[in-house]
Amino acid sequence: MAWNIHDHCFSFAFGLLGNILSFLVYLAPLPTFYRIFKKKSTEGFQSIPYSVALFSAMLLLYYAFLKKHNASMLITINTIGCCIESIYLILYMIYATKSARIYTTKLLVFFNIGALGLIMLVTLASFHGSLRVSIVGWICAIFSVSVFAAPLSIIRSVIKTKSVEYMPFPLSFFLTLSAVTWFLYGFSLRDFYIATPNILGFSFGVTQMILYVIYRGGTKELVLPESSSKLQLEQFPDAAAQQSSVVRVQEDGMNYGVGGTISGNSQIVPTELNV
Questions:
Q1: Helices (DSSP H) in the chain: which residue ranges?
Q2: pTM, 2 dp
Q3: All structural domains of the chain with their residue ranges
Q4: How confident is the model at residue 223 (pLDDT cuts 50, 70, 90)?
């Protein structure tokens, strides 16, 4: 008997596997927050990945509740994602500096009250039935695609420095698996708002792993402005080390920010990592 990928059993299996993989990716920032808790300081870590991840999970939850049918897998992982990202942000706010807390509050107001509130208000007031679901689905897909562009900066950094120091292979690998799983889940349900963005997530993931294979033995090269590099190295011998440390802290924060967006390969967000 021929197998039909659009059978409910396949969508359930892909959705369950996607939930497991996305949950593991959501836990990726735990070492970061353990470090924050231990040092009682957020140091140079940024809150942007977690703010965006929370917005993404809430947006997908809204889509799932509108969709109603075959949405339980989306509801499950994004509910978990909202809880985990909220905990991360609470911990961040506790140990962040005053300026960082203000900035994070602005992000949350902009994304989770302003942007999400506007989307809900317009779609609920102006559209009905399947049209409303389609519009929200397109919004989710477009946002996910924009999030998936985040690894481009990391890919550029790897090529420029010939080092994969800031691109951990295990995270890239599991994000790629997550993208494949959620693509198959969306495809099996003919939900192309979920499936389509994960094609891009998969592509970026494969690119990252290829670069890892090429540059895994490389040593990071510090790139300083040509006009000032000599002066900095002469007057401040440890400037290169300090700059490398700052860059690493910032990029680690971005890499660990992923958890569960629709596809999950952006290294900024977890959504279903990006479901």
A1: 8-26, 30-39, 48-67, 72-95, 98-108, 116-126, 129-148, 151-161, 169-188, 192-215, 226-235, 239-255
A2: 0.76
A3: 9-255
A4: very low
